[in-house]
Amino acid sequence: MLTSYAAHFDTPAGYLDFARFGPPSRDAVAATARAMEEAARADHTTVDGLMRAESVARDTAARLAGTDSRHTVLLPNASTGLFHAALGIPTGVVLTPRTDFPANHYPWRRTADLGRATPRWLDPAPGSGVTPDLVRAALTDDVVAVSVSAVDFRTGFRADLAALREAIGPDRLLIVDAIQAFGVAEMDWDAADVVVAGGQKWLRAGWATGFATLSDRALESLEPVLTGWTGVEEVGVFDGEEHPPAADARRWSITNLSPVTAAAFAAALELVERHTIAAIEGAVATRIAELTETVTAHGGRVLSPTDPARRAGILSFTMPDHDPSVVAKALQAEGVTPTVRTDSLRFSPHASTPPEVSERVAAALSSLGNS
Predict the structure, then answer these.
(1) Digit-coded pLDDT (tens) for 345-371
(2) Candidate from 23-32, 118-127, 255-264, 268-277 with smallest mean pLDDT
């Protein structure tokens, strides 16, 4: 466990649901409170002062993604970024996995409804994800983009972004939903043309936070269909005329975001940058290995990839002969919070998760034999 990192959080030791929601740090909570307090005492300097948090958060997100602020824009969530990307493709086929989270389906369903880009659904093998071989087998001349999750929400399968880029070539777009990876897994973000992420999970910034990065290729080829008044040139000129979209990633801005949530996002990103993604990833991998050993020792069937290089911070499993809801109750009785699905359970620890959580899981799974 990263002791210095963990000291910033008050999350219960048994919380293993970071892939669903990451409880924010005291830093993010304090930044939120400060911004609200400043807003409550507003004067002629308040709004401009609060708005500075957006540029701080954008710059930090850009550094963590290996790019710059010109190619980065803050968004209220990942879905907004995916809709920007989907609607920006005028025609053609987009490859995307049928097994992905629904937030990654609806942008492509809507583009098909509008007669724009059409999805072609990929079917990864169970326990796997979108691989270069799967993509190559589906490539045809009319494919203009591939849309994938960096890390699969069900199993934690980690996509090989560099290999996917090589498979699709330099002219097609690679669109990546990074919400289950950014801040907790080092990946080849520069292989992607579009990277979108929400801040409420592994970044632990709270809801209504997020960002996107756009490559030069994306800026050139994606139409700015959803550009709003804050995404144009000469934002402060109110002359009744239509202004051209901004030349950089700001063209994905629709309106001003909350400076309160931007302050929380900036604080959360700074904490990640200070402690480094590599160190956070290493701590999470240690917890995953311990939890995997505990689950298998008690007869559990692991659904996540067994190769550490092909998985991130998610451990999905079943307990044969036990309904997931029954297993969940046993875990909750020991103070453990899993994600509960109808067919499986999911553990997702963070760098602040202490080793003792495996003991709690062991006690809960042992109790199943006595029920």
Answers:
(1) 999 999 999 999 999 999 999 999 765
(2) 118-127
Query: Which residues, in sequence order, are CB contacts of 205 under 8 Å at separation 6+?
Result: 22, 24, 28, 199, 261, 264, 265, 267, 268, 269
Contact 12, 285 (CB under 8 A): no
316 has pLDDT over 70:
yes
Q: What does the pLDDT average to over 117-132?
A: 93
Contact predicate 310/339, CB 8 Å: no
Two structure tokens written together for 224: 């700015």
Sign for the CA dihedral angle at 139, 91, 198, 213 comes to positive
**pLDDT tens track for 175-214:** 999 999 999 999 999 999 999 999 999 999 999 999 999 9
Say which residues have a Cβ less than 8 Å from residue 38's Cβ, sequence separation at least 6: 46, 49, 50
- Cβ neighbours, 10 Å, residue 323: 12
Tell if the pTM clears 0.90, that is, is over it: yes
> Tell me: the pLDDT tens digits for 234-248?
999 999 999 999 999
CB 180 within 8 A of CB 153: yes
Q: What is the pLDDT of residues 86-103, one digit of tens each?
A: 999 999 999 999 999 999
Tell me the three-class secondary structure of the chain, residue by residue. Answer: CCHHHHCCCCCCCCECECCCCCCCCHHHHHHHHHHHHHHHCCCCCHHHHHHHHHHHHHHHHHHHHCCCHHHEEECCCHHHHHHHHHHHCCCCEEEEECCCCHHHCHHHHHHHHCCCCEEEEECCCCCCCCCHHHHHHHCCCCEEEEEEECECCCCCEECCHHHHHHHHCCCCEEEEECCCCCCCCCCCHHHCCEEEEECCCCCCCCCCCEEEEECHHHHHHCCCCCCCHHHECCCCCCCCCCCCECCCHHHHCCCCCCHHHHHHHHHHHHHHHHHCHHHHHHHHHHHHHHHHHHHHHCCCEECCCCCHHHECCCEEEECCCCCHHHHHHHHHHCCCECEECCCCEEEECCCCCCCCHHHHHHHHHHHHCCC
